[in-house]
Automatic annotation (TrEMBL):
Record GO terms (molecular function): glutathione transferase activity
Residue ranges constituting the GST N-terminal domain according to the UniProt record: 24-105
Pfam families referenced in this protein's UniProt entry, alphabetically: GST_C_2 (PF13410), GST_N_3 (PF13417)
Protein name: GST N-terminal domain-containing protein
Taxonomic superkingdom: Eukaryota
């Protein structure tokens, strides 16, 4: 993937005017701090589509009324404006970008890897929900099984450090959440997700050096609000 240094536009709040709709520009409505939106942001960057897909970041605490009324009625991010329509849902959009735009593929050709990718993508909601719910309960008991599942999944293909061996849409689906959970669980709840999980530790290490998966200069807030 080619790396493009990008001047990130400011987030739009309720006072901001709506960008033109369906004027031929492809727009990714996003929020810098949202891990679901970051999945699509990473895909865009990894495929080198910074010039083809314009970022329209929103302030989720003070989002513009026009976004729900005229752009995307579910009022969530991410959403993509492309070819006269608006498409939502982060995993659907990751697949859509891979199928409809140029750049390196993030979908495996191998049938066994494709099947495992589907299983891991289906599991992602369970993973995210289990970790979020653990914040109010017995952390170790609730998150040990899901992080052990990830560690075991990383052992399925040994031709690289990623879930499917090579970097793929599965890594993109998980890494925004893994990175958040690692920091929050370590700093707030003193739980190290990499302890006894060398493959997960290796995945995090290698993803931290892929330019397209870093979110600087965005600062992620871990407040409980």
């Amino acid at each position: 993937a080619r790396t493009v240094l990008e001047n990130l536009p400011p987030s739009l709040d309720s006072t901001a005017e709506q960008p033109p709709l369906f004027d031929g520009t492809t727009r990714l409505y996003t929020a810098y701090i949202c891990p679901y939106a970051q999945r699509v942001w990473i895909t865009r960057n990894f495929k080198g589509l910074q010039n083809e897909i314009k970022l329209v970041p929103l302030n989720l605490q003070d989002r513009p009324a026009w976004y729900k009324e005229k752009v995307y009625p579910p009022n969530k991010v991410p959403a993509l404006e492309h070819n006269g329509k608006i498409i939502g849902e982060s995993l659907d959009l990751v697949k859509y970008l891979d199928a409809n735009f140029e750049g390196p593929s993030i979908t495996p050709d191998d049938p066994a890897k494709k099947q495992f990718a589907d299983e891991l993508l289906s599991y992602s909601d369970t993973f995210v929900g289990s970790v979020f719910s653990s914040f109010k309960g017995d952390v170790a008991n609730e998150v040990d099984p899901v992080f052990d599942f990830l560690e075991n999944s990383l052992s399925r293909f040994n031709d690289g450090p990623f879930f499917l061996g090579q970097f793929s849409l599965v890594d993109i689906a998980y890494i925004p959440f893994i990175e958040r959970f690692q920091v929050f669980l370590s700093e707030v709840l003193k739980y190290d997700i990499t302890e006894g999980r060398p493959k997960l530790a290796a995945l995090i290490e290698v993803l931290n050096i892929i330019p397209s998966t870093t979110y600087e200069p965005i600062t992620i807030s871990y407040s409980s609000s």
